[in-house]
Amino acid sequence: IKNSVRKFQDREVRVLGAETGGFRGNFYKGYEIVLKTLFGNFVEKKEENDSKIVNIWGVVPIQDVFWKGNLSALKKLLGELGYRVNTFFGTGETLDNLKNSAAASLNIVVSETFGVEAAQVFEEVHGVPYITVPFPIGDHGTENFLKTVGNALGIEKAFVEKVIREEKAYYYSFFERIADVYSDLDLQRYTTVVADSNYAQALTRFLTDDLGWLPELVVITDFLTEEQEDKVRSCFTNFESGLDPEVVFDTDASNVGKYISKHWGQSSGQRYFEGFNPGFILGSAMERDVAEKLGVPQLSVNYPISNRVVLDREYAGYTGALRLTEDILSILVGNR
User: Fold this and answer.
1) Domain limits at 293?
2) Residue 132 CB: number of other CB atoms within 10 A?
3) DSSP string, 98-117
4) Confidence at residue 272, expressed as pLDDT on a 0 to 100 scale
5) DSSP 3-state of 282
6) Tens-place pLDDT, residues 109-126
7) Of 68, 72, 203, 298, most Cβ neighbours within 10 A?
8) What string of H, E and C letters represents the secondary structure of 11-69?
């Protein structure tokens, strides 16, 4: 590839080459490789940094079906802290945002697995430090996101707390509206979460700490190293609810039914047997068959999604969690 690229070096439009994994790689590895290539060979070096600009990545386009909306939501949150944000793949972004991104004061990777190597390259080449913080959905995840970013940027804690209070007030004003219906219709559910490492932890924390559900089983489906698995597993601790979910790493989605049966058990003809009931599966289109077999509702929130149309919908942050709550509870009341 490098030899081929050299032939185009005298062209007006720059051509870069990235050695991707082909059939030995996947979309996540390709995302990492392309970012590393751009950061090392396309982003221009800057003599000074702008203290009010940050870059954010870790939301993988297309693999995160809601990436456009999610990047907009995260950009808006950081804007509340007083910062201009480069997302590279978001709405309204241009190549100039990418080219001049070395002027940023901090790189924020909203993942423990996707984009970390690229952040290391960026720091090595351009001297811009980075932090990693879990992808946030809902109150508890987003509060951690804002506090972590605020601490890294040296923002006054009182100001960060003010932003969080205002966002929470808006967020919970809508939960108050459905509290009685939630209780009267008994909408709490046991849940199996099937997703990549970004979404799995975010969904689990939202479900247990914000919605009051019981996501006792989590199946993470992306290819990870042992070191990455350890980092991801550490995200499933310190839940406000005290939940201690079973976390399984398996790239074969056809095994989900087996894990559900193992975790909740199978009926052997007992008169009273609840098992995975009342249950709910948050996953992808791959889990529709097992949900139908078990007779439980299912919502596709992770790639691949073949039974929904997604334009600018987001699940990140406070507003994204409201959209997710609408989607989840609409399925339950729609099946009544």
Assistant:
1) 185-305
2) 18
3) HHTGGG-SEEEE--SSSSHH
4) 46
5) strand
6) 999 999 999 999 999 999
7) 203
8) CCCCCCCCCCCHHHCCHHHHHHHHHHHHHHHCCCCCCCCCCCEEEEECCCECCECCHHH
Do residues 194 and 115 share a domain?
no
Would you say residue 35 lies in a domain?
Answer: yes
How many domains in the chain? 2
Closest CA to 45 of 121, 83, 99: 99
Question: 289 by DSSP, 3-state: which?
Answer: helix
Residue 270: pLDDT band with limits 50, 70, 90: low
pLDDT of amino acid 265: 77
Using DSSP's 3-state secondary structure scheme, residue 239 falls into coil
Angstrom distances, CA of residue 278 to CA of 81, 120, 187, 201, 203: 41, 45, 9, 22, 18
Assess whether 29 and 148 both reside in one domain. yes
Please report where in the chains the tokens 């509206």 appear, as a residue.
177
Percent of the chain with pLDDT over 90: 82
Check residue 99 and give its pLDDT: 96
Six token digits for residue 84? 């201009």
- Over residues 203-216, the mean pLDDT reads 97
Rg (CA), the chain: 21
| From 2-6, 43-47, 203-207, the region with the lowest mean pLDDT | 2-6
CB 58 within 8 A of CB 115: yes
User: Of 9-13, 121-125, 300-304, where does mean pLDDT reach its minimum?
Assistant: 9-13
Which CATH number belongs to the domain containing residue 194 in this structure?
3.40.50.1980
Same domain, 140 and 226: no
Distance CA 278, CA 218 (A): 17
Q: H/E/C letters for each residue in 306-324?
A: CCCCCCCCCCCHHHHHHHH
Q: What is the pLDDT of residue 273?
A: 46
Q: Is the pLDDT of residue 82 over 70?
A: yes
Residue 320 located in a structural domain = no
Listed in sequence order, the DSSP H helices in 251-310 are 256-264, 288-294
CA distances from 143 to 21, 119, 168, 182, 316 (A): 37, 23, 9, 24, 12
Q: Are 114 and 53 found together in one domain? A: yes
